[in-house]
Amino acid sequence: MDMNKFKRDYRFKSEEAYNDSRRNKILIIACIVIIIVLSVLIKYL
C-alpha cells in the first residue's frame, strides 16, 4: 500500500462525499420549500 496513493485517494473520496452532502442539503431544502408553498396554496384555495 503506497502512502501517497492512499492520501490522494482519501482526498478525492472526501471531496466527492462533500459534494454529495451539499447536493443532498439542496434537495432537502427544495423539498421543504415546495411543501410550504403547497400548504399555503391549499389554505388559500
UniProtKB/TrEMBL annotation:
User: For this UniProt entry, which segments traverse the membrane?
Assistant: 26-44
Is Membrane found in the keyword set? yes
Q: Which UniProt keywords apply?
A: Membrane, Transmembrane, Transmembrane helix
Q: What is this protein called?
A: Uncharacterized protein
Record the organism: Sphingobacterium allocomposti
Lineage here is:
Bacteria, Pseudomonadati, Bacteroidota, Sphingobacteriia, Sphingobacteriales
